[in-house]
């Protein structure tokens, strides 16, 4: 390949699923974008994009090629800026995924300062509770809470997010404020049940016991499968909840929730910054990783 222009155009078409939108974003004619991608497919000897009248989708070969192309473009960007001063403004697009409640409560409110400081930096933020596929879905990096089950991924621990127990004032007025684990049973408390997939066994009420943690199953009248719904059920007074301090703090500050059993908090949740492989650590990725760590630091145990 004579230069990286073909990869840049191909990657933008793949990301936007449209030759028209990709061409407009790059400031070129649609016909030129289409011609460059056709020549690229001829050069590599494979059909990379499946074209219809409505949309453009990556073929299976295209998915593999796109993943490698993103790596190469990231390395080219790194090469271009490797001798630049450390304070140089970030440029280009970064695609990130993180849990919805973390994005909503902590990351997005802090983003204006980052984006104002780097006006040429574009963040593509996915917020979902499912575990995305970094390679097939084209993510540069993700933030994950809990254990990293895929050993092929490269994970950097960020810290342990503080977890707390909480309930609404109305709920506590009805059932009483528990002071001990025994009170949870004696006062007839109930909890909101959470399970990622319905049909599985719900988690119990987690509490520290010696050097370990135990789980007490309390009755409940509602089961949910998303963290935002779990928090809303607690706010509605439907039961006790256990959640991240970062997400519940705004509700506690305005009096909609009250922390209970502060000496019996559940196990902190590991937060990790994850990439598919080490060569994904471009300047943009490293800068965002360091920024994220600073933003989350007040909520770490």
TrEMBL record:
Q: Which keywords does this Swiss-Prot/TrEMBL entry list?
A: DNA-binding, Transcription, Transcription regulation
**Matching Gene3D superfamilies, A to Z?**
3.40.190.290, Winged helix-like DNA-binding domain superfamily/Winged helix DNA-binding domain (1.10.10.10)
Question: Which Pfam families is this protein grouped with?
Answer: HTH_1, LysR_substrate
Q: Which InterPro entries match?
A: LysR-type_TF_proteobact-type, LysR_HTH_N, LysR_subst-bd, WH-like_DNA-bd_sf, WH_DNA-bd_sf
Q: Which residues form the HTH lysR-type domain?
A: 1-59
Indicate the family of this protein: Belongs to the LysR transcriptional regulatory family.
Name-wise, this protein is LysR family transcriptional regulator
Q: Which organism is it from?
A: Rouxiella silvae
């Amino acid at each position: 390949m004579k230069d990286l222009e073909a990869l840049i155009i191909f990657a933008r078409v793949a990301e936007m699923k449209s030759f028209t939108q990709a061409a407009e974003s790059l400031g070129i004619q649609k016909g030129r974008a289409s011609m460059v991608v056709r020549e690229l497919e001829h050069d590599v000897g494979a059909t990379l994009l499946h074209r219809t009248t409505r949309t453009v989708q990556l073929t299976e070969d295209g998915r593999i090629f796109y993943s490698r192309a993103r790596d190469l473009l990231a390395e080219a960007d790194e090469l271009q800026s490797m001798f630049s001063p450390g304070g140089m403004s970030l440029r280009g697009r970064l695609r990130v995924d993180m849990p919805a409640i973390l994005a909503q409560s902590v990351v997005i409110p802090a983003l204006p300062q980052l984006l104002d400081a780097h006006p040429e930096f574009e963040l593509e933020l996915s917020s979902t509770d499912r575990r995305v596929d970094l390679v097939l879905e084209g993510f540069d990096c993700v933030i994950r809470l809990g254990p990293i089950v895929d050993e092929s991924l490269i994970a950097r621990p960020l810290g342990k997010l503080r977890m707390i127990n909480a309930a609404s004032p109305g709920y506590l007025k009805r059932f009483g404020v528990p002071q001990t684990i025994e009170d949870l049973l004696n006062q007839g408390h109930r909890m909101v049940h959470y399970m990622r997939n319905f049909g599985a066994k719900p988690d119990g009420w987690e509490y520290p016991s010696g050097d370990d943690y135990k789980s007490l199953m309390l009755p409940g009248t509602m089961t949910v499968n998303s963290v935002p719904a779990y928090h809303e059920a607690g706010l509605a007074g439907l039961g006790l909840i256990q959640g991240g301090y970062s997400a519940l703090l705004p509700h506690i500050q305005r009096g909609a929730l009250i922390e209970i059993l502060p000496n019996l908090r559940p196990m902190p949740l590991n937060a990790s910054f994850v990439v598919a492989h080490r060569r994904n650590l471009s300047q943009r990725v490293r800068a965002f990783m360091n920024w994220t760590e600073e933003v989350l630091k007040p909520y770490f145990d």
